[in-house]
Design a protein that fits this description.
Layout: H1 12-30, H2 41-46, H3 51-58, H4 63-75, H5 77-83, H6 85-110, H7 123-136, E1 142-145, E2 148-151, H8 154-164, H9 169-186, H10 199-213, H11 234-240, H12 254-262, H13 267-276, H14 281-293
Length: 294
Amino acid sequence: MNGGPSGFHNASVTRAFVIACALFTIFFGIQGRPNKLGLSYQDIFKKLQLWKLIVSVFAFSSTPELMFGLYLLYYFRVFERQIGSNKYSVFIMFSIIVSLLFEILALSLFKEPTLNLLTSGPYGLIFSSFVPFYFDIPISTRYRVFGIRFTDKSFIYLAGLQLLLSSWKRSILPGTCGILAGSLYRLNFFHIRKMKFPEFISSFFSRLSSPATGSSSTAAPSRNILGNAPSYAGRQVEGNYPSSMGAATIEPPEDAIATLVSMGFDRNSARQALVHARNDVNAATNILLEAQSH
């Protein structure tokens, strides 16, 4: 499934978070302590090792979890492009804090002092992101493999399932807490979807992460709903799919345009594709993907 333009274009917060997760995991992996970062009842309520609440958010406990986790974080950068870096920062903070609260509540209920119930890593953010992924990202392709139906979203779900089951109940619990956090965000709990950080906080991530990837974007891009995604040549869209509607062109609905823009496509190209596809989002997605491949 296409997640929009490659790289971290207009996804500086995601870039900073991915870099932080990789560095924390490598650092504690070198020290031989990746499996000791998981939260337990004894750590939180007996030893009061509250520093683990922060470290456990960034450091994965194994290399496979790191690979699947970073892939999913990278793919979900599409949501930062959709709502902007500022609101996406709020989404990250809300997902992490709420999922941690659920995890602490679960630890207090299980009360197994000798068992690390929870694995480490940004499970709260990753599985919180599956909620808007399920509701807001449309299916553009369906196909069969050995008689089993798949869609272009199936691989993302399979990667999430692999991560969820990677440490069995130690990973299922934080993953479930993340889904609950994402559901509360979608329900606009405490009007969270309207909140914003001061602009200097979100811009800090851009300055923080830009040295790690070089000066790939020296010119300030213009903004649209997601931030600016590179145009996929509106002339190609028009040339490959001539309009059959003639003069009676129906203006595409705003929510359909926003859906395509949320996938990383340029707003103008998304509108043109919807016009040629008679406002069919799935058909318009295919038009844009084909135009991008040329």
